[in-house]
Amino acid sequence: MAGTRKPVVEVRRSQRRRRTVSAYRDGERVVVLIPDQFSRAEESEWVDRMLARLAAREGRLARSDAELLARAIRLINLYLPEHGAASAPASVAWVTNQNGRWGSCTPADRTIRISHRIQDMPDWVIDYVLLHELAHLIVPSHNAHFWALVGRYPKTERARGYLEGVAATAGVPLTD
Fold this sequence. Notes:
Elements: E1 8-14, E2 22-26, E3 29-35, H1 40-63, H2 65-79, E4 91-95, E5 103-106, E6 111-115, H3 123-138, H4 144-150, H5 156-170
Parallel strand pairs: 1-3, 4-6
Antiparallel strand pairs: 2-3, 5-6
Helix pairs in contact: 2-3, 3-4, 3-5
């Protein structure tokens, strides 16, 4: 069956690493980082576990862009109805390359990108980030009109507080 074969795995042991295990895709192979003191059995167990986590994350990313676009349309209908097609994005996608932002928008081509880091956050937080980016399709800056549009979402302050807490815990500055 195509697509179900096991990828090439490179295991890297580290004397500095004590308990944590991580994995990432590097081209066609998967690199798994483990503590040096792990036994071969623990290594095998963790490689399987990390391959499953990567596959699950990649599956969420692959199948949910369409769901994210549908969610954006629902938010437009609820909170920006008078803007209709003017506030509709050309595309909305989960991305893995945004480490300093929760989302971004390019009004010129009407694209929205949402960081994969918020996929596991509560729905009301994802909705806030998405509505924030949708509002940029109407008002590119962060002026008073922009914030009035975003403020139509009833959980705006709660979501901003949640994201500020996550950013503070991670030591990452929150950017709008």
